[in-house]
């Protein structure tokens, strides 16, 4: 016997019940983005590997060990399944000169790929929706992006998602800080673990969010970024905080928050829930004013976020906020010569009138078909037997209450069914 085929590890099938929730959430998200004037952008799942290397940074976990990279043998190009979409959005904005007539608010939704160790809330294929505000200096749009997240959590009925906020300054400020940080960590090198030592010269800021208690002790006495921030950075950060306060959005300052991608400057933030275990960050983002130039474009500021769909769905399920399943309005049952063709045509008429109608397929006697009608959850059975066929009519049987079965002429059937569905 041949081995049973399974999905790739860390990649999930979204089965119909779960897919209905996802479809519903996508609708909520699309309407929410539209209310803030964000327009959708769709970029390919595959990009040239160099895009992510340059945008996310060589010394990040993503680029070092999590990218699905392969050589396209047909033209010997190195391609990568996108691990995130900010790089792609900025690449597209440069390629199509999207900012030629002013700044743009963009959003996207779709699968991302990271070769991480799978666990609850962490997958190798996962979905994000995200926003990128391109060409705005902020801090007004920084605040808008954060406030709109708060509005979405509220609309979804999700509670207990807290906001952590930090500023990581300008490139120059970070360079000065980095130098002193390396000095500090080098002086305590014997107490760093292998991971921290590896990062000492490539990405010392990432040592700040090490989970290792021994390393944390060294972090506790490290110089703080705050001492290196200049006036412009502080003014930006204060402007953002002022708008958040006016909007009534609570936040915690977390000076250790540095995020895992190298393109950030100034504002960084994360939305975190304590109800999801180790993978509690449902949304993260920040400003990336250097990214356009880094990718070869005309310099332009940018800021955005991305939210993890699986994590939000887990929160929705945990708090019982997923919508109830909506079964079809009608299940079409047919029995006798010529009735299939009739029911088939009636089904098309009902769908054209906007009703959800499921045709019984695959044969079976009347009783078996009625059982299927009942199990389908449909509100009404529309029955075509030889008598109905002869009368150019159908029999309608309400399945969820004890209203009697009645005969209804085919002409005007949709209107009659709509009345019955409303309870009349
Ligand atoms: P990120 O923090 O890498 O940021 O990812 C954003 C969110 O995606 C996370 O907070 C989490 O909810 C979800 N996520 C990340 N990795 C996984 C995974 N392996 N499994 C399930 N969910 C995951 C970015 O991707 C940036 N592009 C965000 C951004 C947009 N910054 C500026 N603009």
Hetero compounds: histidyl-adenosine monophosphate
Q: Helix segment count?
A: 15
Instruction: Please list the strands of the largest sheet in the order they lie side by side.
Output: 1-5-6-11-10-9-7-8
Spatial gap, N to C terminus: 57 Å
Q: What would CATH call the architecture of the largest domain?
A: 2-Layer Sandwich
- Mean pLDDT, to the nearest integer, reads 95
Protein architecture, described:
It is a single chain. With 424 residues, the chain is α+β, with helices and mostly antiparallel strands. The chain folds into 2 domains: 16-170 and 230-318, Bira Bifunctional Protein, Domain 2 (BirA Bifunctional Protein, domain 2); 330-421, 3-Layer(aba) Sandwich (Rossmann fold). It is 39% helix and 21% strand. It has 15 helices and 16 strands. It has helices at residues 16-35, 49-56, 61-66, 86-95, 140-156, 171-187, 194-202, 213-220, 231-247, 291-294, 309-318, 339-352, 366-376, 386-391, 413-421; strands at residues 39-40, 46-48, 69-72, 77-81, 104-113, 125-134, 161-167, 252-253, 265-273, 281-287, 302-308, 330-334, 357-359, 380-384, 393-398, 406-409. The strands form 3 sheets. Strands 1-5-6-11-10-9-7-8 form an 8-stranded mixed β-sheet, sandwiched between helices. Strands 13-12-14-15-16 form a 5-stranded mixed β-sheet, sandwiched between helices. The protein has a 3-stranded antiparallel β-sheet with strand order 2-4-3. Strand 12, helix 12 (339-352) and strand 13 (357-359) form a beta-alpha-beta unit. Helix 5 runs parallel beside helix 9. The longest helix is centred in the first third of the chain and has 20 residues, at 16-35. It starts with 15 loop residues before the first helix and ends with a helix. Bound molecules: histidyl-adenosine monophosphate.
């Amino acid at each position: 016997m041949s081995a049973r085929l399974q999905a790739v590890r860390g990649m999930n099938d979204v089965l119909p019940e779960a897919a209905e929730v996802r479809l519903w959430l996508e609708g909520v998200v699309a309407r929410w983005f539209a209310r803030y004037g964000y327009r959708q952008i769709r970029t390919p799942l595959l990009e040239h590997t160099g895009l992510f290397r340059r945008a996310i940074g060589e010394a990040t976990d993503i680029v070092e060990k999590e990218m699905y990279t392969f050589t396209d043998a047909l033209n010997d190009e190195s391609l990568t399944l996108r691990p995130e979409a900010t790089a792609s959005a900025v690449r597209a904005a440069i390629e199509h000169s999207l900012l030629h007539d002013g700044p743009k608010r963009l959003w996207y939704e779709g699968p991302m790929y990271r070769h991480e160790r799978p666990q609850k809330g962490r997958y190798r294929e996962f979905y994000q929706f995200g926003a990128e505000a391109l060409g705005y200096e902020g801090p007004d749009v920084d605040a808008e992006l954060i406030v709109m997240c708060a509005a979405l959590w509220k609309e979804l009925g999700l509670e207990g998602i807290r906001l952590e906020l930090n500023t990581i300054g300008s490139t120059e400020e970070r360079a000065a800080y980095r130098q002193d940080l390396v000095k500090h960590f080098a002086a305590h090198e014997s107490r760093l673990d292998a991971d921290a030592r590896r990062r000492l010269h490539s990405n010392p800021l990432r040592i700040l969010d090490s989970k290792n208690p021994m390393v944390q002790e060294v972090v506790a006495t490290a110089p703080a970024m705050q001492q290196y921030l200049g006036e412009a950075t502080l003014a930006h950060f204060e402007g953002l905080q002022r708008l958040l306060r006016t909007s009534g959005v609570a936040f915690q300052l977390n000076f250790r928050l540095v995020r895992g991608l190298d393109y950030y400057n100034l504002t960084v933030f994360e939305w975190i829930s304590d109800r999801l275990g180790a993978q509690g960050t449902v949304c993260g983002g920040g400003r990336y004013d250097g990214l356009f130039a880094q990718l070869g474009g005309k310099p332009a500021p940018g800021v955005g976020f991305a939210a993890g769909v699986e994590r939000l769905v887990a929160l929705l399920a945990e708090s019982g906020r997923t919508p109830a399943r909506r079964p079809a309005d009608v299940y079409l049952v047919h029995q006798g010569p010529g009735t299939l063709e009739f029911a088939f045509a009636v089904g098309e008429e009902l769908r054209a009138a906007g009703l959800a109608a499921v045709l019984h397929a695959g044969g079976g006697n009347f009783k078996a078909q009625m059982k299927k009608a009942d199990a389908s959850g449909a509100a009404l059975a529309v029955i075509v037997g030889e008598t109905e066929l002869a009368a150019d009519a159908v029999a309608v049987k309400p399945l969820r209450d004890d209203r009697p079965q009645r005969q209804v002429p085919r002409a005007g059937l949709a209107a009659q069914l709509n009345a019955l569905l409303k309870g009349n």
